[in-house]
Write a structure and sequence with these properties.
Distance between the termini: 25 Å
Number of helices: 0
Mean pLDDT: 79
Radius of gyration: 16 Å
Low-confidence stretches: 1-29
Largest sheet: 6 strands, antiparallel
Strand order of the largest sheet: 1-8-5-4-3-2
Order of helices and strands: EEEEEEEEEE
């Protein structure tokens, strides 16, 4: 499984929405259904610094699925391992583990066209970012 990862220290505008979209494909006037979920991730301050983040999920009718999680301002030591998971009802699926940068951020980008295995999200599912001992950020789609 290939996973594209990068660190980030840029502030992001976080939009909270959960929508299913229909779009006209143009000249051939074929309808396409696409599901998109975006959520802000929030958590308590860690040593006086409040972590932030967001998650986005997109599923297209032609089969392409994308999942992105961006986290920043996590006031923990560089090299701390963060686990990204999705909870749907009683089932928790670990998506990946990432190593925190010196800037306190990480980014996970998964795309089914790159051969990545992705979770299937539905409205009400919860995205968690945690260490081995505590939850850092959480947000419901």
């Amino acid at each position: 499984m290939r996973t594209r990862r990068k660190t980030t220290s840029t502030a992001f505008v976080m939009v909270v929405c959960a929508t299913a979209l229909s779009a006209d494909k143009g000249a051939n006037n074929v309808q396409s259904n696409e599901t998109r979920f975006k959520t802000s991730l929030a958590g308590p301050a860690i040593q006086g610094k409040t972590p932030e983040g967001h998650a986005a999920f997109r599923s297209e009718d032609r089969g392409r699925v994308r999942f992105n999680v961006e986290v920043e301002y996590v006031n923990l030591d560089a090299g701390t391992v963060l686990t990204i998971s999705v909870q749907g009802g009683p089932v928790i699926t670990v998506v990946d583990t990432l190593t925190l940068s010196a800037f306190g951020g990480v980014e996970l980008e998964l795309n089914s066209e790159d051969g990545n295995l992705l979770p299937t999200l539905k409205q009400g599912d919860v995205v968690n970012v945690s260490t081995s001992s505590k939850r850092i950020l959480v947000g419901a789609v």
